[in-house]
């Protein structure tokens, strides 16, 4: 008897998805409830709107590719970035923890083009409560995987760490180049935007905040 296999859905995530496995894991896609078919239809309309022939061979697969791209870039939509902090440890140490130069990329919600940069995340543990260093990078990653503005993303990262770790203080600094300024409008390539968000003692104590900023700025 001949076995007939079902035709693969081009929009269904593959087992070897480029999206990393994380504490949030594949459930991020379920939480997102992204309508890929609507994206496909929308991309076809854009192609037609700019005067292209959406049926020519070179563009036939483009709408599907764009839909899969958005599924990867925006999988954090509707997910709390703090969900990545799934483990904590207790150490007899309340000294500063700083992770610098965490690379990220996000999508500007105003023009749907990328902004790309680095994040610096610091916190002062409360009674020795810490988390894995990679969890801080994962919080940045998840916060970036949704339509964003840099100012809001900076605060979301700081607030997520405050909620999950209850530290004495947090400071987050983002530095990014926005393609909406680099490739359109004023077209100032290389321009970087810096945003900060401070919480707890790192918001109230100017001396402590200045000390952390000196560590961050010391390349």
Oligomer: single chain
**What is the CATH T-level topology of the largest domain?**
GTP Cyclohydrolase I, domain 2
Spatial order of the strands in the main sheet?
Answer: 5-2-3-6-7
Could you give the order of the helices and strands? HHHEEEEHEHEHEHH
CATH superfamily label of the largest domain: GTP cyclohydrolase I, C-terminal domain/NADPH-dependent 7-cyano-7-deazaguanine reductase, N-terminal domain
Number of domains: 2
Distance between the termini: 67 Å
**Over all CA atoms, what is the radius of gyration?**
21 Å
Mean pLDDT across the residues is 88
* CATH top level label of the largest domain: Alpha Beta
CATH-derived architecture of the largest domain: 2-Layer Sandwich
Helix vs. strand class: alpha+beta
Tally of DSSP helical segments: 8
- Percent in helix: 25-40%
Total number of beta strands:
7
Which strand-content bin applies to the residues?
15-25%
Q: Main β-sheet, in a few words?
A: 5 strands, mixed
Shape: elongated
Low-pLDDT parts are: 1-8, 13-23, 25-31
List keywords for this structure.
21% strand, 37% helix, 2 domains, two-stranded antiparallel sheet, GTP Cyclohydrolase I, domain 2, alpha+beta, GTP Cyclohydrolase I, Chain A, domain 1, 219 residues, 8 helices
Question: What does this protein structure show overall?
Answer:
The structure is a single chain. With 219 residues, the protein is an alpha+beta fold. It folds into 2 domains: 35-73, GTP cyclohydrolase I, N-terminal domain (GTP Cyclohydrolase I, Chain A, domain 1), CATH 1.10.286.10; 85-217, GTP cyclohydrolase I, C-terminal domain/NADPH-dependent 7-cyano-7-deazaguanine reductase, N-terminal domain (GTP Cyclohydrolase I, domain 2, 2-Layer Sandwich). The protein has helices at 27-32, 36-49, 62-73, 133-144, 150-165, 179-182, 201-204, 206-217; strands spanning 89-90, 97-108, 114-124, 129-130, 147-148, 169-178, 193-200. It has a 5-stranded mixed sheet, sandwiched between helices. β2 and β3 (114-124) form a beta hairpin. α2 (36-49) crosses α3 (62-73) and α4 (133-144) runs antiparallel to α5. The longest helix is centred in the C-terminal third of the chain and has 16 residues, at 150-165. The model is unreliable at 1-8, 13-23 and 25-31 (pLDDT under 50).
